[in-house]
Design goal:
The chain is α+β, with helices and mostly antiparallel strands. The protein has a domain of 195 residues: Alpha-Beta Plaits (2-Layer Sandwich), CATH 3.30.70. It has eight helices and 27 strands. The strands form nine sheets. Strands 8-3-2-13-1-15-14 form a seven-stranded antiparallel beta sheet. The chain has a six-stranded antiparallel beta sheet with strand order 17-18-25-16-27-26. A two-stranded antiparallel ribbon has the order 4-5.
């Protein structure tokens, strides 16, 4: 297996629909997610890979073979720096200009028995004299260097190099009556697309009335990582094509990238994980677990387990998780997962909608105590690797995680 990175450049606003009905007799307004789901990126790349390989087509076992390709991403990049979602344990008091890190407090200062007994409350402070405040939204995208500082417990200051969420562009469409050339009665609908060519710089420090476009927005490209067998790797190396991403066939330029260091963990994180007994996991992409919020690799009674077979054994002590989000989709070919993680064709199923499942949102934070083992493995073998339960969810890029201390 070979690992390479891809650089994507959006030509059009990208359609990333949510699950609400849209279409004839269902609704005339499309609503957008704030970022494309990992499975959308994975599916688009696999289709582009088949089209770029003259020896492949979408017959026989090819659809199942390309499903074995591991795709991770999508993340914005500015220059040669990767950007990752904001961690959910960051509490921003914008009026006072203070940034707090939430963490589990000792069990003798309070506890909770929901959703399971034994977890500790995650709070930014337990000081009763501290004045309450309403936290302000944090920047949506953090440079990986600043996120690394956060994961190591170092202070972070929000500046213009932090980026806000992608802006949504709406378009109104009409259907023309071929007989009259006028708008067909009632045939009007609206689509919403994400501008993924420029992201707004953190607005707290930007005066839009006195700054130029370049000062208010950062030009970005997009980065993904693929793990693929050698027999088709040569086509990834030569990949340079336009191919749709998301709905409405909005075009993106795909090409192989040489920026392999973008996805690597810094040595300072490895050293910190090696010596610390308190370990923090932050989701960089939404995760899908068999038990909702709880990974299957954590025992239901002891809350202990190993995220990676050669990694340390961890005990969950607290979690800071946003509200769940839904994911579904459409299966072009009926298939099922067998015991060894491979997919097999199930003709009786046929094409059709996928079941709706719940995702743990990106940015969610899990706090662990190390029971045994070498924490350095989490950075060397687990940095931006999937912690989801099902093999096909891992191959689709759900549940990529970064690791730090608390």
């Amino acid at each position: 297996m070979s690992v390479t990175t891809l650089q994507l450049t959006a030509h059009d606003p990208i359609i990333a629909r949510d699950g609400r009905p849209f279409g004839i007799g269902q609704g005339n307004r499309m609503r957008s997610l704030d970022w494309p789901l990992p499975s959308v990126v994975a599916g688009s790349f696999r289709a582009a890979l088949v089209k770029a390989n003259p020896g492949l087509d979408f017959t026989k076992n090819t659809p199942l073979e390309v499903l074995r390709v591991e795709v991770a991403g999508l993340f914005p990049t500015v220059g040669r720096e990767l950007y990752l979602p904001a961690p959910n344990d960051c509490v921003w008091d914008g009026d006072a200009g203070k940034i707090y890190a939430a963490k589990p407090f000792p069990i003798d200062q309070g506890g909770c028995d929901f959703p399971v007994d034994g977890l500790r409350p995650v709070m930014y402070s337990n000081d009763p004299d501290k004045l309450p405040f309403k936290p302000k939204p944090t920047p949506r995208w953090w440079p990986v260097g600043e996120l690394t500082n956060w994961l190591l417990g170092k202070p972070v200051t929000f500046e213009a190099k932090f980026l806000d969420a992608a802006m949504t562009e709406t378009r109104d469409h009409v259907c023309l009556d071929p007989n009259t050339g006028a708008v067909a009665e009632g045939q009007i609908f609206t689509t919403a697309g994400l501008n993924m060519t420029y992201l707004p710089k953190y607005s707290e420090h930007i005066d839009s009335g006195n700054r130029s476009f370049r000062e208010r927005f950062a030009e970005i490209t997009l980065s993904a990582r693929v793990t693929i067998s050698e027999k088709v790797f040569e086509y990834v190396e030569n990949l340079k094509t336009w191919h749709p991403l998301g709905g409405e066939r909005r075009l993106v330029h795909w090409r192989q990238s040489d920026d392999v260091d973008l996805w690597r963990c810094q040595e300072v994180v490895k050293s910190a994980l090696e010596t610390s007994a308190n370990i923090r996991m932050v989701l960089a992409t939404p995760a899908i677990f068999d038990h909702g919020w709880r990974p299957d690799w954590l025992d239901a009674s002891t809350l202990e387990g190993k995220p990676f077979g050669d990694g340390p054994k961890l005990k969950l002590v607290g979690a800071s998780i946003a509200r769940w989000k839904a994911v579904s989709g459409w299966a072009m070919q009926g298939h099922a997962e067998n015991g060894d993680g491979r997919r097999v064709v199930v003709p009786s199923r046929g094409p059709g909608p996928k079941a709706i499942r719940r995702m743990v949102p990106a940015g969610s934070v899990y706090f662990f105590e190390k029971v045994e083992g070498d924490g350095r493995v989490l950075a060397t073998n687990g940095w931006l690797k999937s912690v989801s339960d099902a093999p096909h969810d891992r191959r689709d890029g759900f549940g990529l995680a970064v690791w730090g201390i608390w």
